[in-house]
Amino acid sequence: MNVITRFAPSPTGRIHVGNIRTALHNWLWARKHQGKFILRLDDTDLERSSEEAAQGIRDDLAWLGLPPDEEHRQSQRFAPYEAALERLRAEGRVYAAYETAQELDLKRKVQLSRGKPPVYDRAALSLGADEVAALEAEGRRPHWRFRLDHDRAIEWNDLVRGPQHFDPSLLSDPVIRREDGSWLYMLPSVVDDVDLDITHVVRGEDHVTNTAIQVQMFEALGAPVPAFAHEALLVGSEGKLSKRLGSLGVEAMRDAGIEPIALIAKLARIGTSQPVEPVAAPEPLIESFDFSSFGRAPARFDMEELAGLNARILHQLPFQAVADRLPPGMDGEAWEAIRPNLATVADAADWWHVVVGPIERRDAEEDRSFLAQAAEAAERIDWGGNPWGALTAELKRSSGRTGKSLFLPLRRALTGRDSGPEMGPLTLLIGKERALERLREGSKA
Ligand code: GLU
């Protein structure tokens, strides 16, 4: 199957988890079918859009590992929008209307007070040439509406929501262009989807009604209607659409030490019937991606769960995946010894500091002679094999200590901590020289 998807944010700010999830699903579907994933910048609103925000979105997608295959900007495509509007106008599918915002508002209020749906009454369609001339003489400029075809029900089989059915007479003819010539979202999006041969439109369910209208626009333009997948929205851990989610973007994730793959693993699966799994690379997510596993209930996003998943993923990440973010000198062996203890990559520096020292002394008075004994034993044992095993075996025999009274003073003396990574590999990293020095220090406490 030839698949072309697009992610279409407005470059008016950075993207948040909700947008990231949409981008990811478009990317996963395209990758699954060796298709194309397009970034479309919806920047028809020239005042609110900025190059800085556009760059921010590109940077965010790059960090996430979701680079687009192509990029298009609506602000460079005004000519095809204009041409589509002219064509639809010639065919009677676009008409001029002159009501002001206040007049429209009043109409809606009257309809609502009569218990009627606030659908535009198409008064503009019955304006005579003289009335139009009078309005224009008053200085009014027209805005443009797309005339829905009321004679045919709108139907599509949504990849997530199943069969969809809309009665067009219950929808207002949408305004597609304002009096000042600026474009609203609806028609440009369809013209782009046609020109870029988009096969699948994947977006949030807040766009379902737009889709109903856009299906008629595709048909009016004589273009094939793409497939649609409208995913249920994302809610916070408290089960509501939270403000916090709207501000949670790549920057916040990076600050919290979240790996891109952890966020991807989470967002690929929440709200679906497939379990969230600690994958180290996106391939298994691509292979298993399937719209039919998506539920209709909102997807719950919980930052704490993400932090837990992040830790589980870190515990399997290979050295090469993190090497450039580790402290100088920390090698693959050190990474493998330390990673089971990490919640974030940044924590590795802390444990590396424990290896290279200096460490904080916290030895107990009553362990002094035991640590002196340990320092002597540490000189004798073979450091080539498993020094921690050899040291503790010898001290168990010579001191009679077992369990916590054997292990804790040694851990404290060697690391300055009460807990942490397994002592076997850690002792090897600390090495004979530093270990001896630390045990001797401990005996002087
Ligand atoms: N710019 C629109 C949005 O962010 C795009 C919607 C669409 O995918 O068509 O909501």
In short:
The chain has 445 residues and is mainly α. The chain folds into three domains: 1-73 and 232-316, HUPs (Rossmann fold, 3-Layer(aba) Sandwich); 79-230, HUPs (Rossmann fold, 3-Layer(aba) Sandwich); 357-443, Arc Repressor Mutant, subunit A (Orthogonal Bundle), CATH 1.10.10.
Fill in the keyword field for this structure.
445 residues, mainly alpha, Arc Repressor Mutant, subunit A, binds glutamic acid
Structure characterization notes:
It is a single chain. The strands form 5 sheets. This protein has a 3-stranded parallel β-sheet. Strands 4-5-8 form a 3-stranded antiparallel β-sheet. The model has no long low-confidence stretch (mean pLDDT 96). It has 445 residues and is mainly alpha-helical. β6 and β7 form a beta hairpin. The chain has helices at residues 17-32, 51-64, 78-90, 101-113, 129-137, 186-195, 208-220, 243-247, 250-255, 260-269, 283-288, 303-314, 319-322, 332-338, 347-356, 368-380, 387-399, 403-415, 423-443, and strands spanning 4-7, 36-41, 70-73, 94-97, 143-146, 154-158, 162-166, 175-177, 200-204, 227-231, 234-235, 299-300. It is elongated. The longest helix has 21 residues, at 423-443. The termini are far apart. 47% of the residues lie in helices and 11% in strands. It has 19 helices and 12 strands. It has 3 domains: 1-73 and 232-316, 3-Layer(aba) Sandwich (Rossmann fold); 79-230, HUPs (Rossmann fold); 357-443, Arc Repressor Mutant, subunit A (Orthogonal Bundle). It binds glutamic acid. Glutamic acid binds next to loops.
